[in-house]
Specification:
CATH class of chain A: Alpha Beta
Structural class of chain A: alpha+beta
CATH topology of chain A: Alpha-Beta Plaits
Oligomer: heterodimer
Shape of chain A: flat
Number of helices of chain A: 3
Shape of chain B: elongated
Structural class of chain B: mainly alpha
Number of domains of chain A: 1
Low-confidence stretches of chain A: none
Radius of gyration of chain B: 26 Å
Distance between the termini of chain B: 67 Å
Largest sheet of chain B: none
Helix content of chain A: 25-40%
Chain lengths: ~120, ~450
């Protein structure tokens, strides 16, 4: 089963790391991604540019509305994601628990819907 | 479980069918949760398992009086329940690509009848750990455990928690849906996850106990049924766990020692009686004996956890024949250890109460004021009640009255309110002006 793991973080907190702290975290993340890939559990992963680069778009009555910034202005912003293929929710939790930025921010784990449902969007 | 019924009941006389009927009833009363726990594993769905369970018992009531009680009634109920559930799914044609009957059959792979009885105990443990899974909201963990493990009805749980039945039912439905769609596994956690997962289970059990022992609001001080369920759960957990877990023993000890004082802690009118004023002859000796033995066993392990320490504190009270004989020094020491393990202002406050008993009210009050200046207990009525009591003992009646009034503003539970009100009135009698002008 696939789970999308969304890594939320405070950008300031990460920018506040010293150069060597950041490099250690970066290397740890790259190593972990490699290990996950080798174990066959990683589908894909990307880090995102700062939430300050985000735009949010809506189409209402045929009009396109674009606003500056992410959808919600909360303390933590989406900083990256990894899509994994694992047996169950507990294995997803175990994978996410070892994702290095979980120690600084938080990770939301969402099971993937394999096909859009017929009767309504959510079960 | 096999064989206890005996072949004699297969004789087709009226008596035999009556016996078969009562066997079904006894199995339903004592073993239906075992059957449902296994059906959940086989069917991968709580509601389907519940449906299968009821169909299986209905079939048993029809067939056993006629054909005799099967050799292994448990296995019979499980395979009948599983068959009926899958059959009903087929008839409803209620599958889509995500919910294929073949997938359910796959999960059901092993023939339940061939499994030995050890597997059955595993299923009950799986059920407990799944109901208390940390991915579920705390309220939902409690509701689901009481519903699925203890077999209370939604209405009973709603009444006990003073929650509208619809809200509670919704909570349970959501939790089951999350278990299904997020694929929360039906497993006993492995060695590495065990400590954290066991903590979650113990927390649920203690929440249930406390709701029964010191209901957070409402007219009745205790709701004995919930405490009884929590104690039953605590026992079941210890019985099912493969390894002895000291904290599970510590929690059961704590609950038993608190429960032993139930009859003594309220008057016939439902008023609160403080520990020091309780008639110790009314403490339940059987529960105390069992609780003390469990504490001693839990303390022998190298790792001592918070439940065991709280039980050890309750044990000091239980061993004292009268309040004056209480070893307050030992209690303060136990709180010191507890604070290192689990620092919290509420525990600091409890320690201050014990310290006031050991070193006098003045020392206690100084400490209570220091703790309260931290600000974390500003809305905790007990903190003001403690301060009030210490001031009262020091004859600082004005301060005592002010603290009682603040506690009264915050208290939610009726017997506690009456207790505080009584204390405040006593102060007014001692010194009429102590009550002071009402604060607007």
């Amino acid at each position: 089963m696939k789970y999308l793991c969304l890594a939320y973080e405070e950008e300031q907190k990460l920018n506040g790391l010293s150069r060597s702290e950041w490099q250690a975290l970066r290397q740890e993340t790259l190593d972990y991604v490699e290990a996950l890939r080798e174990s066959g559990r990683l589908v894909t992963t990307y880090a995102l540019q700062s939430a300050t680069t985000a735009s949010t778009l809506e189409v209402r009555n045929g009009e396109v509305w674009v606003t500056d910034g992410p959808f919600t202005e909360t303390k933590e912003q989406l900083g990256g994601f990894f899509l994994i293929e694992v047996a169950d929710h507990d294995e997803a939790l175990q994978v996410a628990a070892r994702w290095p930025s979980a120690r600084i921010g938080s990770i939301e784990i969402r099971p993937v819907e394999e096909a859009l449902r017929l009767e309504r969007r959510y079960g | 479980m096999t064989g206890q019924v005996g072949h004699g009941f297969r004789m087709s006389d009226d008596n035999a069918s009556g016996v078969a009927r009562s066997v079904v009833e006894a199995l339903y009363r004592d073993d239906s949760r075992r059957v449902v726990a296994t059906l959940i594993r086989l069917l991968g769905d709580f509601d389907l398992a519940e449906e299968g369970l009821h169909e299986a018992f209905r079939a048993a009531l029809e067939q056993w009086p006629r054909d005799g009680v099967p050799d292994n009634p448990y296995a019979w109920l499980v395979s009948t329940g599983r068959f009926k559930a899958i059959d009903s799914l087929r008839r409803r044609g209620k599958f889509d690509a995500l919910d294929d009957p073949a997938a359910i059959m796959d999960v059901a792979g092993v023939d339940p009848a061939t499994r030995d009885d050890e597997g059955i105990e595993d299923d009950r443990l799986r059920l407990i750990f799944t109901c208390c899974h940390p991915a579920l909201l705390s309220d939902a963990q409690v509701a689901l455990t009481l519903r699925e493990v203890c077999d209370l009805t939604t209405e009973e749980i709603a009444r006990a928690f003073l929650t509208p039945a619809a809200t509670l039912a919704q909570r349970i439905v959501r939790a089951k849906a999350k278990i299904r769609s997020a694929r929360i596994p039906y497993e006993v956690p492995g060695y590495r996850e065990m400590p954290a997962r066991l903590d979650a289970v113990l927390r649920v059990i203690y929440l249930v106990f406390n709701e029964g022992y010191a209901a957070s609001s409402g007219a009745s001080l205790t709701r004995q049924d919930l405490s009884g369920e929590a104690i039953r759960l605590g026992r079941l957990l210890i019985e099912l766990l493969a390894q002895p877990e000291p904290e599970a023993e510590g929690l059961l000890a704590l609950m038993l020692l608190q429960e032993s004082r139930r009859d003594a802690r309220t008057t016939a009118e439902g008023d609160l009686v403080l520990l020091e004023d309780q008639d110790r002859m009314r403490w339940n000796r059987g529960q105390i004996r069992e609780g003390l033995a469990l504490v001693e066993r839990a303390l022998r392990h190298r790792r001592v956890g918070p439940y065991t320490l709280q039980a050890a504190i309750a044990a000091v009270h239980a061993r004292a024949p009268d309040p004056a004989a209480t070893n307050w020094g030992e209690i303060v020491g136990l709180y010191d250890v507890l604070l290192r393990l689990d620092p919290s202002p509420v525990i600091e406050l409890n320690r201050a109460v014990a310290l006031a008993m050991r070193d006098g009210a003045e020392a206690g009050l100084g400490l209570v004021d220091r703790i309260m200046s931290g600000g974390k207990l500003n809305n905790y009525h007990i903190a003001y009640a403690v301060r009030a009591d210490l001031c009262r003992r020091l004859n600082r009646h004005h301060e005592a009255a002010a603290a009682y009034r603040r506690a009264l503003e915050l208290v939610g539970q009726e017997p506690e309110r009456r207790f505080l009100q009584r204390r405040l009135s006593e102060l007014r009698r001692l010194q009429p002006e102590a009550g002071g002008p009402p604060e607007s």
